[in-house]
Write a structure and sequence with these properties.
The protein has 9 helices and no strands. It has one domain (2-96, 115-235, 243-264). α2 (33-57) packs across α6, α2 runs parallel beside α9 and α3 (63-96) crosses α8 (211-234). With 265 residues, the protein is mainly alpha-helical.
């Protein structure tokens, strides 16, 4: 009975939070893209610095080990970004083979190989790790007390919504504005919550000590994506009014995560 409840609760929290985020975010994405990019950056940074890292540092793990994990995580996502950029450039190069010489050939080469929105894999990896950790937490709560398990599931659903909005924005941009592809990818990442729940049910004692490191890796992905992919898109020459709006939406993203996380705890 407990195992069934864990499966239901983790699926509801993991996938339900994604669909709720999509319902709230996609409706306004076309008209308010720049505002929602600011919101996404604020939400991802706040999730990392005000939710995941504080929770990791509340554990018995040493600060040095957690900061090392955070640093290695950022480096890993940098290398992942490089690999995706290399793959993109490699495909671009082969796409030019066979193009006739002359104007067409020159035109093919004239397009600069720009950096793709390579934050997609970092978001999905970090989100999956984060969701796996959430699943372990929900399972641990159910094992301790059945009612506490449902409270934990609702709390996870609530605090995941703001940063899933950010994930969906990043994924939609990286997939050529394909809303459906973004939703499927983030939904699959959300479903990893159930895998964490199953692992937590059977291996709760063994995995408990590794939770702080899961949280640090998840943090590194959100920090990297916010600073490498989202914030550079916001660094444009704007009027004072537009800049104020940008900062306001950034702070709103941070505030949403802070308020929801505080309420959930």
């Amino acid at each position: 009975m407990t195992l069934v409840a864990i499966i239901v609760a983790t699926l509801a929290a993991g996938i339900g939070s994604v669909w709720l985020a999509a319902l709230l975010g996609f409706a306004a994405l076309g008209r308010y893209t720049q505002h929602l990019l600011s919101l996404a950056a604020g939400a991802l940074l706040a999730t990392a610095f005000m939710h995941l890292l504080p929770e990791a540092f509340e554990s018995q793990a040493s600060a040095k080990a957690l900061f090392t994990t955070l640093l290695v995580g950022v480096l890993f996502f940098f290398l992942l970004d490089k690999a995706e950029l290399w793959h993109h450039g490699h495909e671009h190069h082969h796409g030019l083979v066979g193009v006739h010489a002359g104007h067409e050939h020159h035109e093919g080469h004239s397009h600069a190989i720009t950096k793709p929105r390579a934050g997609a894999w970092a978001v999905l990896t970090g989100d999956s790790v984060h969701c796996f950790g959430d699943g372990i937490l929900i399972a641990s709560a159910f094992v301790a007390d059945f009612r506490l398990g449902w409270i934990a599931a609702v709390s996870v659903l609530a605090h995941e919504v703001p940063h899933h909005m950010g994930d969906l924005i990043v994924l939609r941009q990286s997939s050529g504005n394909d809303r459906r592809a973004a939703l499927i990818k983030v939904t699959l990442a959300g479903a990893v919550t159930m895998l964490g729940g199953l692992a937590g049910f059977f291996l709760v004692e063994q995995l408990h000590d590794y939770l702080p490191y899961f949280l640090a890796v998840g943090s590194s992905s959100f920090i990297y994506v916010a600073l490498d992919d989202l914030i550079p898109q916001l660094q444009k020459h704007l009027t004072a009014r537009e800049t104020a709006a940008q900062v306001a939406w950034l702070l709103l993203g941070m505030g949403l995560v802070s308020v929801v996380s505080t309420a959930a705890h």
